[in-house]
Write a structure and sequence with these properties.
Strand 4 (108-111), helix 5 and strand 5 form a beta-alpha-beta unit. The protein is built from 7 helices and 6 strands; from the N terminus they run αααβββαβαβαβα. The longest helix has 14 residues, at 140-153. It is globular and about 60 Å long. The chain has helices at residues 16-22, 25-32, 39-49, 94-105, 119-125, 140-153, 163-166; strands at residues 68-70, 73-75, 80-81, 108-111, 130-135, 155-161. The chain has a 4-stranded parallel sheet with strand order 3-4-5-6. The protein has a two-stranded antiparallel sheet with strand order 1-2. Helix 4 (94-105) packs parallel to helix 5 (119-125) and helix 5 packs parallel to helix 6.
Length: 172
Amino acid sequence: MDWKKLADALDVFDFQPVAQKIVPPAHWGYLMTGVDGEETLKANRDGFGRYQLRTKRFVDVSRMDMSVELFGAKFNSPIILCPVGSQRAFHRDGEAGTAKAAGAKGHLQILSTQTSVSVEEVAKAKDGPLWYQLYTTDSFDVTTKLVKRAQAAGCRAVAVTVDLPAGRNTEP
């Protein structure tokens, strides 16, 4: 894919070769690593490939509404920016930059516990609701403080990730 013609990308996977050229190898490894021998990554990609766009001809699409309502908040589409930690490894604005982009298009962003930008700074940059992804800890006090901080910053929902406390099955 030619860097100057990103508008020609047909799906998110078209960005991968470009990103791999510009993201440092250690950061690329972090971004592309999955659990259970990479099976989840493969399953996700295979699952994405099973979806097709069905063309409907002679249908008025001038007033399409792809909005979705979740927990009392309305979003422009079902596109959700899922939690990815340490985003400053990929861009100087990190999660705050992601928040600005999500807010500009009316999409939901879920902020990772492993954010490289404070939850308060991300919430300030986001125009619209923000959710918080929680990695619980073995200390209830620490976990409670994380949730209260996210709540005080304006996060409307908490998504609990369950793989970390039980131990991830990441193969070398």
